[in-house]
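Much of the work behind modern protein science is quiet bookkeeping, done one molecule at a time. The protein below has been through that process, and both of its lines are reproduced in full.
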Amino acid sequence: MALAVVTASGAVVPAAAAAVGPPPACGGIVANPSVEETARNGAPDGYVFTPAAPVPPGTPPAKVPRLVTEQAFAVDGKRAAVIQTPDGRASTASENGKFVPGGVYTLSVWTGSYAPDAGPATGLRFYDVNGAQVQENKLVADHDARDGRLVEQDFPPVTAPAKAASVKFFATTSAERLHWDCVDLQLAAYTVKKEVQNPATGAWGPFATVTAGETAHYRVTVTNEGTQELTGITVRDPWCTGSFEPFALAAGANRQLTCDHPNLTVSDNGHVNTAKVTGVHYDGGTLGDKTASATITVQPPPAIAKIGDFAWADRDGDGVQDPDEPGVAGVKVTLKDGAGGTVGTTTTDDKGKYGFDKLKDGTYQVCFAVPPGFVVTRKDAAPDDRDSDADPDGCTTPRTLGGKAREDFTVDVGLATPPPPPPAPSPTVGA
């Protein structure tokens, strides 16, 4: 006996009917696949019944619209489902299925009808977000169930259409009785989620605010949403350092991958980081590529940087801060930015100390106004916390503040008394 798939466009696709016998499987992603669970009225749990209306007057009880279960025709378990309806008026039962965008659905169901020529059918219907049907894939249940049995109908795999947002298994007839049992809906599908970590809370999500100079931490989660193993899963993220090896996922499993993007700048503000998943294979084909994104807001670093700190009298002129060498008060200190512009000025206190605070991250240069009677001592003659850092003109080499180095209290100057001038030459005798 030949079966046919009738698509939404009216095309007919051949399908095969299995021989009568024990079903290989029932279930997959559908609930109550063997219709063993029933409501008080005898209908299978999980189904929504849309009866024919109006019912013609005088319709016999055997044709009044009903959805029930019965022991006759059970393929597995003890019950099978049946719709009865008045001739020429359609009654339909449907059950929601798990929907995954881009998923490949493979349906098998055992069916039979008392009026196969009337076109009773089962199958899948896909709907958009507004509940409008966008695609129907059905098989005509053309086995005459008056022989007391059902036969298996195997549907060709179907990919969820792009506009779909939900899927339902349905059974419909417009004459006599349609019987079905052992619904098996297999799904090959996956989802991908991209997240970025909020540095303030540690939470993961699609958005985060990060400070310039810090590192953005990303996480990609790939989940096998279906009933089949997936292999060859390849994740690519061009904005992350390093790469990921392809991997496999068992049904229902997931894998999380993490990566970093260091040294963010203000120009990275609003960057949308997109990961792409490719090469996902299942037993029967390859699933479509998918992408997922996370967005960062990059804020300027807070103005909390500081720089300082000491001008001292280098009495022995060796360029090293000795314990008995005092600070020099009243030395004018000018702070310049990386472009040479003046950021601020101050003077050393009575202990020779100075400092600038509430600075933005950046490059700075400190210039000391050398007091009369002093010269700048030797530069870099000791470790940075005990040396002099200024050139003879009183200015230091520019230094960068930012990231984890927002404080520098080692910018010092040693002021030494210049050596006395050499004695004047003696007058020549007899000149």
User: Anything to note?
Assistant: Confidence is low (pLDDT under 50) at residues 1-20. The chain has three domains: 3-188, 190-299, 305-416. Residues 262 and 362 are 18 Å apart (CA to CA).
